[in-house]
Amino acid sequence: MVIIVTGGAGFIGSALIRYLIRFTEYTVVNVDKLTYASQPEALESVESSERYIFCQLDITDHKSVLEIFDQYRPSAVCHLAAESHVDRSISGPSEFIQTNIVGTYNLLEVTRNYLEKHRLLKRNFRFLHVSTDEVFGDLGKNESPSTEASLIRPSSPYSASKSSSDLLVQAWGRTYNLPFLISHCSNNYGKWQYPEKLIPFFVNQALSNKSLPVYGDGLQIRDWLHVDDHVSALMALLTNGVVGESYNIGGSNEQTNIDIVTQICDSLCSLDKEFNREYVNYHQQIEFVKDRAGHDKRYAINAEKIKRDCGWQPTTSFETGLQQTVRWYYQRFYNESK
Ligand SMILES: NC(=O)c1ccc[n+]([C@@H]2O[C@H](COP(=O)([O-])OP(=O)(O)OC[C@H]3O[C@@H](n4cnc5c(N)ncnc54)[C@H](O)[C@@H]3O)[C@@H](O)[C@H]2O)c1
Fold it and tell me: Does the pTM of the predicted model rise above 0.85?
């Protein structure tokens, strides 16, 4: 069986591919443009596998992507390729429209053409579109977490582009019978995240003796999930998800941004002690800066549907997961600066 993973050189895609090669029999075709956000090093452990194929391609390139489908005959697509950083979407939305909307449209058309050519495949085929909880917009402090039935209310160009891609996927399902599933996951953390994202960014800033700039009052709330738990949820959807349905994925683990930064500083102090480095009070580097435009106050996700219908459960506690993750970036920082 062949699975195409788009964006497989990114943070979540690479974790998914490492899982697929290690624990399943799938042959994995990674379609990735290798933008600035990709982390090819994260795939070193799978590169020697005969079941791993890498194609450097832009998902907006219809002809080349269709050739890959015809050549490898996938029975599933996990679509993760995206521009994914909210701040960049505010300063330059164009790439987000191009990759997240036009790219998804192109992939849907490629999949439709491919399935029409190879009709037999359609019954067992899956198009898993990986989206984000940010499409639901922000919630008040006492509002219930977003469910699959919540309104789509994006705030940033990033979440608007992801919302648009969700709508395209739904329409291709309804109009062309494309067998899709959509997932909406909360904030992921773990190793191999591009260092502009919150956790690696703050670790690197702190260790470089630079300011730790926290937006606004730092009280914005996000739900956090370990990337390996996101991967196990995607696997559960591929196996047990119902075609045409969307599923929320989350850790029921709401944290304010300032709490996360404080926990990072605490972990760094413990690591310095363990590695006999001089004591640094990283907390003193925290600085509150002008809030991000349109900054969502709170995201929270109700993930009961995937738990109930697909038997999925997250297994990494946030405390342990965060400590392991900070340790990983800490060691990488010192290895790289040797
Ligand atoms: N990171 C999170 O917390 C989170 C949470 C929920 C959902 N998501 C979604 O999961 C997916 C993966 O997120 P991530 O954090 O791994 O992203 P990432 O930015 O780390 O990786 C994205 C990957 O997509 C590739 N890519 C970008 N444009 C491309 C194009 N035009 N053609 C082919 N490849 C292209 C990049 O090279 C990169 O390898 C995204 O769709 C994102 O919206 C992310």
Answer: yes
Catalytic positions are 133-134, 158
By residue range, what is the domain housing residue 97?
2-193+227-252+299-315
Around ligand 1, the residues with Cβ closer than 6 Å are 6-7, 9-13, 32-35, 37-38, 58-60, 80-84, 99, 103, 130, 132, 162, 185, 187-188, 194
333 domain residue, yes or no: no
Number of structural domains in the chain: 1
117 part of a folded domain: yes
CATH number at residue 143: 3.40.50.720
Helix (H) or strand (E) holding 233: helix 227-240
- Compute, in angstroms, the gap from residue 168 CA to the centroid of ligand 1: 18
CA angle 253, 128, 36 (to 5 degrees): 75
Calculate how far, in angstroms, residue 96's C-alpha sits from the geometric centre of ligand 1. Answer: 11
> Is residue 130 included in any domain, yes or no?
yes
Q: What is the pLDDT of residues 60-79, one digit of tens each?
A: 999 999 999 999 999 999 99
Distance CA 47, CA 50 (A): 8
| Residues 191-247: tens digit of each pLDDT | 999 999 999 999 999 999 999 999 999 999 999 999 999 999 999 999 999 999 999
Q: Tell me, yes or no, whether 92 lies in a domain.
A: yes
Residue 293 Cα, ligand 1 centroid: separation in angstroms? 22
User: Which residue blocks in 75-219 are alpha helix, DSSP H?
Assistant: 86-91, 94-96, 104-117, 157-176, 198-207
